[in-house]
Amino acid sequence: MKKNFSFFFYFFLFFIFSSPVFSFSKKDIENKLKDKNINQHKIERNLNVNQEKLELKNRQSTKQSFDELKREKIIPDVIISIDSKNTNSQEIDKLIKKLEDLRNQGKKVDYYTNDKLVGIYIYLYGSEEKYQELRKEIVSRSIKLSSNRKLVKQYTPNDSYYSSQWNLTNIRWSEAMDLGTGSNPVTIGIIDNGVDVDDSDLSSNIWQNAGDSYGDLTDNDGNGYIDDRYGCNFYLRIIEGYTYIPCQKSYIKEDLTLDSKHGSYVAQVSAGVTNNSLGIAGVCSSCKVSVLKITDDFGDGYFDLFPYVFTYAINKNFKILNLSYGSRCPFDASEDIYAADINTLINTYGIMLVQAAGNNGSMTQSQCISLCGSSNPYCYSSARNQAYYYVDGKSVPNKINVASINSSNQRSSSSVYDGSNAVITIAAPGENIPVYPYSLVNGTSFSAPMVSGAIGFSMTLLSSTSPN
């Protein structure tokens, strides 16, 4: 009997350690990439601060759009994600062989990861024509593939007008305020097109990085971001490669010459200053907001910046991230490349991600084809109107996706809805929401910060409460 046990034990060890699919560690994968001279994603311009300001000023008339940057191979057009906790050597070897083939064809390849994320993200440039081929050859349970999607605001502007904040009445905000405003500090990261930190209805509720001395042009806390007192412009820092100016006040707010006010309104709804005889009352007036700008000057959001933003939020111990941006076109689970790290964000680090579910609830087939192309299969069914096909982290436990309702507690006609794949967590007011200067705004863009603020409010009252 003892002999048989030994035989099976050693056979088991032999099988495990000789198997071609024996699991790899994250460090093993990174070492393999480095062995093949696939470098970390990094762009540096090596200019001084005055040169950076002058260069940006001089290129006002030649700013490039998301699509132009892809065509010129400045940003990746395809992103591959590796879930390092669930992959194996066979999958990695197959992927790296494909990356070598692309390199031999003259394609640029680099990657990004860090010790806070489980994902390793491979960026491909000028490889869009290889997309379907890559899907067939490398996608597996741990390797996913996505085009670098342009993210758009989930926002419909309305005429300037001010009325009562029915949205606060709807959620019984005044009754909640009878409990107090809480003393446990909570920061909401606003992933958006910027926030004006000098906004009269926000300035005293802007988060401040205690590790940074603003204006000294020094990376005081050693995190790779200079002067990030209030957050940073990740587009300028990561994609454009500027060093000194991306986190300065004038570059982290919306560019109103080419874009519209959005992130500041989102921040006001979630955490606008209350009892200041001005503007509106935010849902969580005792919360702080940080600026996590992911857009260019036109307001287009860059999907490839998510890993950098997630890492920043983890390092700064934010408790809530509000994402009022989403994919302009429907996509499925095989392209949900950030799912593993959205799960890490929420269920390892306790940072809640609240996302606007989307405003394509009434999009027609012809509109979808015009916007997304005739090759998008979801344009031909009601999937084009369903939340599942627009949100990131589709199957991640505890992630919050927010639909919009009107003052009659009915779904807003523009809001996406649940189909057979249910992902909407909650609906919140998203029509005729007052903001300052006095306007009414619409969309799930403003439903999401209602929920972010409500979560923050609960956490300020109960110090032992986590977002989950």
- Alpha-beta classification: alpha/beta
Instruction: Based on the coordinates given, report the CATH architecture of the largest domain.
Output: 3-Layer(aba) Sandwich
The helical percent reads: 25-40%
CATH class of the largest domain: Alpha Beta
Count of beta strands: 18
How many separate domains? 2
CATH superfamily of the largest domain: Peptidase S8/S53 domain
CATH topology tier name of the largest domain: Rossmann fold
How is the main sheet built?
A: 7 strands, parallel
Q: What does the overall shape look like?
A: globular
Please count the helical segments: 15
What is the topological layout?
Blueprint: H1 2-18, H2 26-35, E1 39-40, H3 49-58, H4 66-71, E2 78-83, H5 89-104, E3 108-112, E4 119-125, H6 131-138, E5 143-147, E6 150-153, E7 156-157, H7 166-170, H8 173-177, E8 187-192, E9 231-233, H9 234-239, H10 249-252, H11 263-271, E10 288-293, E11 301-302, H12 306-315, E12 320-323, E13 325-327, H13 339-347, E14 352-356, H14 365-372, E15 400-405, E16 426-429, E17 433-435, E18 439-442, H15 444-461
Parallel strand pairs: 1-3, 8-10, 8-12, 9-10, 12-14, 14-15, 15-16
Antiparallel strand pairs: 2-4, 2-5, 3-4, 6-11, 6-13, 7-18, 17-18
Helix pairs in contact: 11-15
Task: Write a brief structural summary.
The chain is built from 15 helices and 18 strands.
